[in-house]
Design brief:
By secondary structure, this protein is of the alpha/beta class. It has one domain: Metallo-beta-lactamase, Chain A (4-Layer Sandwich). Helices cover 32% and strands 26% of the residues. The strands form 2 sheets. Strands 6-5-4-3-2-1-14-15 form an 8-stranded mixed β-sheet. Strands 7-8-9-10-11-12-13 form a 7-stranded mixed β-sheet. Helix 8 packs parallel to helix 10 and helix 10 packs across helix 11. The chain binds zinc ion (2 copies). The site of one zinc ion has 4 residues, from loops.
């Protein structure tokens, strides 16, 4: 185990080096860009959780916060999302909208937490309007099921603490590809991705605000549709998976990888879309006690076989400020 921990911290140090180098690259205007980024950013992304199903302390479940103008938007709600939102200084009850890429459990296990905890009277919560969720077919059933599962809690809190009923109501819109949200100058577009033939629907999202844009790939194999929606985007956040070569001989890991994007393939996506900054989140590094997991350094090297532009392997709580002159990376506080 100790060896594994050392490898991880080595990889993190290496990653910081990569990120530090990239900041200079993605801000070609130099001092002006720095000045701009020091002002309060009007368009920023925080990778709240950069992991997937493995229950890691370093990578919570998938969740991405986008703040654009007056809008505070959450994309996916994986394990630990409520803690991460509060850590990011976001009152959990203040979310304007929640968007789900697909209904795999790693993307939604934090949803009841955001919904229920966001309704409580504490300073961290205080939602008194309906919880608004956009997601694929099945999302209405998901929220109805949660209402049933937590019926005792909801009834008890209304009776006992007089919490507003409106704050625990939910408003769900099931989506198809296209523009799904337009408010205060922020536009969210859903697009189909390829998470495997049996895992439909699955979406990526593009967020446009004031001439700048972010694309989130969601969970997908190499997808021409991601490229179509991400060409020229400012920030492209893409999933990635890599499996130890020995494990890859087994059908189960072949099946896992068949639903995700290899770093060499992501490199092609980055080369063809040319984002100002490419980022990995939903980072899957699969190994076993016998066959160690590939490292972030492996991710970087394999990506570099097809892409030479700026990119970063995200960590939880990394912030990306999307300015007019480039994307500025702010490392998480330690
Ligand atoms: Zn996933
Ligand atoms: Zn998935």
């Amino acid at each position: 185990m100790a060896g594994g921990l050392n490898r991880e911290s080595d990889a993190m140090r290496f990653q910081h080096l990569v990120a530090a180098t990239m900041i200079a690259v993605v801000n070609p205007a130099g001092i002006d860009a720095q000045a701009e980024q020091q002002a309060a950013p009007d368009f920023s992304v925080v990778t709240l959780g950069t992991g997937a199903p493995p229950p890691l302390l370093t990578r919570f479940g998938p969740a991405t916060l986008v703040r654009a103008g007056k809008e505070t938007l959450l994309f996916d709600a994986g394990r630990g999302v409520a803690q991460r939102l509060w850590q990011a200084g976001v009152r959990i009850g203040s979310l304007d909208a929640v968007f789900l890429t697909h209904l795999h459990s790693d993307h939604i296990v934090g949803l009841p937490d955001v919904w229920l905890t966001g309704w409580l009277p504490g300073a961290f919560a205080q939602r008194n309007t309906p919880f608004r969720v956009w997601g694929p077919e099945g999302t209405k059933g998901l929220m109805a099921g949660l209402e049933q599962a937590y019926a005792w809690d909801i009834k008890a809190r209304i009776a006992d603490t007089n919490l507003p009923k409106e704050g625990i109501a939910s408003a769900v819109i099931e989506i198809l590809e296209g523009v799904i949200y337009e408010r205060n100058g922020v536009k969210v577009t859903a697009f189909d991705v390829d998470h495997g033939p049996l895992l439909k629907p699955a979406f990526g999202f593009r967020i446009d605000y004031d001439g700048r844009s972010v694309v989130l790939s969601g969970d997908t194999k190499f997808s021409e549709n991601v490229i179509k929606f991400a060409v020229g985007v400012d920030l492209l956040i893409h999933e990635v998976a890599i499996v130890n070569d020995e494990l890859l001989r087994t059908p189960i890991f072949q099946a896992v990888l068949a639903h995700h994007t290899k770093p060499e393939e992501a490199g092609i996506v980055f080369s063809r879309t040319e984002p100002k900054l490419a980022v990995y989140s939903h980072v899957l590094l699969y190994g076993s006690p016998q066959f160690p997991a590939p490292t972030e350094r492996d991710l970087v090297h394999k990506t570099r076989t097809n892409y030479s532009g700026p990119f970063v392997v995200a960590e939880d709580m990394m912030r990306f400020n999307i300015g007019r002159t480039g994307v500025n990376v702010v490392q998480p506080e330690r």
